[in-house]
Amino acid sequence: MALRDQNRAPLLSRLSQPVLLGLGFAVLIAISAASIWLVNQARSDAAAVAHTLEVENSLAQIQVLVRRAESGQRGFLLTRNPSYLQLFDNSSRDLVPELGEIATLTADNPNQTGTIQTLLPKIREKMDELGQTVQLGRQGRWDEALAIVNTNRGELVMRDIASAIEMMKAEEERLLGSRTASARESAQWLLLVNIVGVIAIISVAAVSVHLSQRTNRALRQAHAALAVINVDLERRVEERTADLQEANQEIQSFAYIVSHDLRSPLVNIMGFTSELEELRTDLFHRISGLRERAGDTNAAQDEELAQDFTEAFGFIKASIIKMDRLIKAILDLSRQGRAEFQPVPVDANALVENIASTVAHQLMARDAKIEIAKLPPLVTDRIALEQIFTNLIDNAVKYLRTDVPGRIEVNAIESSAYITFLVSDNGRGIDSKDRARVFELFRRSGPQDTPGEGIGLAHVRTLVRRMGGSVMLDSELGRGTTFKVTLPRTLTMQRQGE
Amino acid sequence: MVNHVTIIMIEDDEGHARLIEKNIRRAGVLNEIVPFKDGTSALTHLFGPDGSGAVSAGRALLVLLDLNLPDMTGVDILKRIKENEHLKRSPVVVLTTTDDKVEIQRCYDLGANVYVTKPVNYENFANAIRQLGLFFSVIQVPEAK
What we know:
The complex is a heterodimer of chains A (498) and B (145).
Chain A: H1 2-79, H2 83-105, H3 110-138, H4 142-150, H5 153-294, H6 300-338, E1 343-346, H7 348-358, H8 360-365, E2 368-372, E3 378-381, H9 382-398, E4 406-414, E5 418-425, H10 456-466, E6 470-476, E7 480-488
Parallel strand pairs in A: 2-4
Antiparallel strand pairs in A: 1-3, 4-5, 5-7, 6-7
Chain B: E1 6-10, H1 14-26, E2 33-36, H2 39-47, E3 61-65, H3 74-83, E4 92-96, H4 101-109, E5 114-117, H5 122-138
Parallel strand pairs in B: 1-2, 1-3, 3-4, 4-5
Helix pairs in contact in B: 1-5
């Protein structure tokens, strides 16, 4: 079915949209977290690299200072010029904090700390040797000083220092290499994560856009389909309404024509029956005259014949009168069906109270009461509403029980557009098999002990239907009846026949 | 009503026509009654073959008209009579079963002189026709020109 398919697509999209949104957010959060972590990583990598360079720099400085101290010592011993002592003293002085710094810088690395443990005594030994020779030179004991230098011990120590520093440098180079590699790896990961994230987000967005478009398309199609259905529905409702109105009008005009045309022959039947009655009088007059002239004095047979005549005429006339009433009822009903309604604001309370006052003497005679609740006002045809209530209240009064005090109630239940009027009685009730029949023309229920034609409720139903309402009844035989008349709060003029 | 006035009775139901005639006679009206059972023959009589109505010139006519006719409605006949130069002053009595207010108004609007509804109850019917007969005996009817 086309309709079911149209339903499925928006359902899928409705489910997918939040999922996609969640997915998009998750990807963004992952990228951000990864980026922050990787940037931090890169920063610590860079710090490590800087640290390595600092260590290398410090080592180079130490080497240079030792060499310069040695150069100062050599220059002093060679030239005996005390200005070289300046160089030696400065270098010796600067070397002390530099040694402290390298120890601090490499404190975190056990390899380097180990090497420093061998390096520091060597430097101290070298500096002691240099200090000793310089001291001897100052005291003028040049030969002794040169003798120490000539032992070549200083040179050996110097070589040890150089090799220890080279070892440390190599270690730092190794560290630098691994740290640079790690930094490069971090940068690559950062790039990769970002690229993957961007691709993921673009995909999510693309799927989302696609789904939105599909939803929109489905919505548009559904809208179009709905519009078509609506138009079709309206057209059909209009057609049906027109058909119904036409049928209704046909029935009305049929009822009118039939009842009208039935009256004409009835006039003849009635007229000539009366003429016959006149003739009968003349006839019997002549018969009695003739009988007298013939000398027959027995009038009993004539009397019998006359009675038969009277009986026959009685039946004919009663039937004609009844037929006339029925035809008149149909005529009235069809006329009601054609009358134009004039909606005006109606005070239902005043209207019902007015009707109640017209049956007041009947109520009194039957020891009955009528109670009218607060009824809402409505806009309707006053005459039609009056006829509805008159018929219902008359009916209620007519069929009250004689063994209990009668009680009639008029109530109303309101809804937004409709008002349901309830006319309840504690009368004799209507047998369940008769509940539909009582609304039909000329149909009555229960013992036929009260005068009536069976027109009232048919009349009520015709009016209520024409006003766009409905009438129903609840009843319990021997307990009472409630008629429920539902009418629009505001009567709108129906289109009448052209 | 002087004797030379002719009563034109346009009534499709022969029974009604007979009952009307009987009761008019009972009121002592002795004028000639010319019955027509349909609209066409009545119109031919009133307006002549040429339809001008000149044929009725000089006649004193009173029309008793039923509205429900087999070939046309009495309203059409009423309209033709009241629009005709020769016949417009002839009294028209609409005697019909219809008691519809709209129909009654329409007939008077078109110039009907009297509108009487036939009662179904024969006593009332006979009474009404007899009173109509009495009415006929006192009114003046002009000759058609």
